[in-house]
Amino acid sequence: MLQALGVSTDAAAVYQMMLDHPHHSVDQLAAVTGLTPTRVHDCLEELGQLMLVRASSENPGQMRAVDPEIGLADMVARQEAELAARQAQLAASRAAVTKMVADRAEQRSTHGERLMGMDAVQNQLEHLGRIASTEVIGVQPGIQQPEDLAAGHAQNLAALDRGVAMRTLYQDHARTHIHIETHAHALLSHGGEVRTAPTIPQRMVIVDRAHALVPIDPADTRKGALHVTEPGLVHALIELFEQAWSTAVPLGAVSPSDPAAGLTDHERELLRLLGSGLTDEGAGQRLGLTDRTVRRQMASIMERLGATSRFEAGIKAAQRGWL
Fold this sequence. Notes:
Distance between the termini: 8 Å
Shape: elongated
Structural class: alpha+beta
CATH topology of the largest domain: Endonuclease, Chain A
Strand content: 5-15%
CATH architecture of the largest domain: 2-Layer Sandwich
Low-confidence stretches: 254-260
Number of helices: 12
Radius of gyration: 25 Å
Order of helices and strands: HHHEEHEHEHEHEEEEHEHHHH
Number of strands: 10
C-alpha cells in the first residue's frame, strides 16, 4: 500500500511494473500500465524524488527500481525522522513555555495574578467556567484526585450543555483509573472531546483563548496557579496544546502503546483496497460488506489513529507498523 507512504496510485503502478519487468522501456511501461508515456515520465520523476528509482548503470538513460527492502525502508525511516523532529519541536516548545511562565511568575499586572492555594484556584476556575462562552481547553498530567474532579464536574457539564466546546488531554495511564475514565466518558456523552498521549505538556486550563491558568510550581500544583491574560503567553500555551493534541489518541480508541493496538486482518485489507484506488462500493464487494459498513469501519480506524482523512489514516497506520 504505497499510497500510505505518499506515493501516488499511478507512480505505485509504474514502480511495481519496474520491479516485475526491470528492462521495460518507458513506452513498454506505458503499455502495461495503461498510462501515457508523458505520465510515466512524471511518475518516474516522482519516484526519483522519493528515491525509489535511480539511473541504471547497465543501460544509460534508463531508470531502474530500487529494491523495496531498501527504498521503502528508507522512506519509513525518513518519516520516522520527521516525526522525531516534530516531537523534538514539541519538547522545545514545552521548555520555552515553561521558561516564559517562570519569568512572569513573580510579576503581577493587568495581564495576570497569582492564585495561592487550591481554594483560590478552584474559585477562579468556577468563575471562568461560568463566563466561558466558546471553548475550554485542559491539560491534566499525572492523576487527578477524585475530589478535584468532583469540584468542577457539574460546571463542566453545564458549560458543554450551553454549547461551549471542551477538549481535555490526559496521559495514557489515566485510562487505567476508573474515576478519571468515568469523568471523561461523562464529558464525551455531553459533546466534549478527550484524548490521551504518553507525554503531555504541563497542567493548564485555557478559557475562550483569553484566560489561562498554569501552576506556579509544576512539581506541586496544589501550591497555586498563575492566571494569565497576556495575549502572547496565552497564544504560546495554545500552540503547545495543539501540538500535543494533534498526536494524541481519542478516548475509546486503542492507545498506540497498548499491546492490543493495531488492525485486524479484515481492517488491514480494507485499508489496502481503498488505498489501491477502489471506491467504498468496490472494496465492499471484495469483502462482502455494504457501503455503509465500509464507511463505519473506516470512521472507526480514523478515530483510533486520530486521523482527519483516509489518506492520513493510511500514513499513520504505516508509521505505526500496522500495515
